[in-house]
Amino acid sequence: MANKPFLIFSILLAFLAVAGGDSGQGSELDYSKLSGIIIPGFASTQLRAWSILDCPYSPLDFNPLDLVWLDTTKLLSAVNCWLKCMLLDPYNQTDHPDCKSRPDSGLSGITELDPGYITGPLSSVWKEWIKWCIEFGIEANAIIAVPYDWRLSPSMLEERDLYFHKLKLTFETAFKLRGGPSLVFGHSLGNNVFRYFLEWLKLEIAPKHYIQWLDQHIHAYFAVAAPLLGATETIEATLSGFTFGLPVSEGTARLMFNSFASSLWMMPFSKYCRASNKYWKHFSGGKQVGTNTYHCDEEEFKSNFSGWPTKIINIEIPSTREIPEANLSGMECGLPTQLSFSAREIADGSFFKAIEDYDPDSKRLLYQLEKSYLGDPVLNPLTPWDRPPIKNVFCIYGSNSKTKVGYYFAPSGKPYPDNWIITDVVYEYEGSLVTRSGNLVEGNPGSISGDETVPYNSLSWCKNWLGPKVNITRAPQSEHDGSDVQIDLNVEHHYGDDIVPNMTRFPRVKYITYYEDSESLPGKRTAVWELDKANHRNIVRSSVLMRELWLEMWRDIHPDAKSEFVTKAKRGPLRDEDCYWDYGKARCAWPEYCEYRYVFGDVHLGQSCRLRYTSADLLLHYL
């Protein structure tokens, strides 16, 4: 299937541009004036050279505006030169003396990471989406990308690039240009960036105008695959290296990743620990001064895992120095000592302090952790996120995939950066914890698992944004007639507890489960969508996600809509592409929606299956 990320914005805004003036009459908001603002994830923005760098022993040099991230040709032929343009100083986050890189701007910066005949399709991020925008006649000013240097910590994004000032101006410019608020779509790390922006904004706008500004400039926020409590794969990238599919060694990948202060932005942290901000005194009348203080609830110390399924790090270190008794899991003279660390002990720096004598990166990472995160005057990002104060919030993520939740490390006997090896991995899957070697592990596994990259407990933290009464619906992801739709209304929900619906599953059916609340916060709606088997990196290309977002916003704009959320009673084809040929019945599938209609150029029967009615007519069934 062709990559079509963020197709929803193109289809939705195209429709709005045509129909918004008519169908939107009588509604509170003229949706034909909406803008779409996209905040991409980690490593999803092009970086370009801003230097002249001569690469010895290679015919390829770096000149200003040359592509750095991602140019696989130069990576393969001149890896040392390429690294100079990618690496940052681990302490002050400045560029290498010989080369600097900066993020590209606009849609071109997020379209395709490595353009080219061979590599282009593999690195295509939003290229197909732009084609759809053009095909549907979207105005160039309706879709706005806000790329950023994903190597930097949040405070450095503002200090070096004034990123959050520019983002605020982007919202205000979109409002002036289009006349209405924006839809914000964040993917992965992009959600962390947006969270920091909302906190930074509190210091830029008078408190009594803060909510007014949000209501005026942001209509809905779609948080897709957000690592709300961090991601365990960050530990792997920090200690042993994660290549992201690049043709580099794990040691080189580790060296590069640990030079980025953003590497700590996705570290796992406890759901029981929070930070008090030194600027809160301006809002609450408090007298606190100085840096942030980090404090944990009693639950943190009653549990062993900080709200995670298991201990995240289990590491062997030489027993050559005195080890704190709390971390000691058995020591014999002359044998390595195995230490275990929870999410809290990672986020507060205890882990890095424990291995400081055995790993040269630990001091650098500890410095950045204390400076850019624990000591950040705006926000300590390694703390749980409460529901953002936006009218409509949709939290969307994949589930039920085998996901890493813990690691076993041991010294490799090799020099840095290859000084650690992974001896085993703990996965969550089907309500159990199992190691790579097949052994079951004790812990607190969730009812389901994550999206292959981010564990379920981190993705599903946004269920705490729902109120005490939640409506739950489970339906097949594919087109259906409603026979397998299950509904449970007014389910009790307690903050901090997971919501596990008592619903059946057929083994071969992929479901989407909706958790919806429109009553606990007057004038606000909150929804959580779980998509079975949706991969973290590819969820934005999911046609199911695009369809559901389209239908939800269609219901939102229509004056005749009777429910707070779109009905899930059935799902039929909405586009010609959804129609296909049923070889068993020798006709087009879904005959009430689709018909056989040949058009010159069709090369197979499925292409000739097309909608009987217009999409606008079909959409009326979903009000």
Automatic annotation (TrEMBL):
Give the protein name, as stated in the record: Phosphatidylcholine-sterol acyltransferase
Q: Which UniProt keywords apply?
A: Acyltransferase, Signal, Transferase
- Pfam families given in the database record: LCAT
Q: What's a single GO MF annotation on this record?
A: O-acyltransferase activity
Gene Ontology annotations of biological process type: lipid metabolic process
| Keyword NADP (UniProt) | no
User: Mind telling me which SUPFAM superfamilies this protein's record contains?
Assistant: alpha/beta-Hydrolases (SSF53474)
Q: Does the keyword Acyltransferase belong to this entry?
A: yes
Signal sequence range: 1-21
| UniProt xrefs under InterPro entries | AB_hydrolase_fold (IPR029058), LACT/PDAT_acylTrfase (IPR003386)
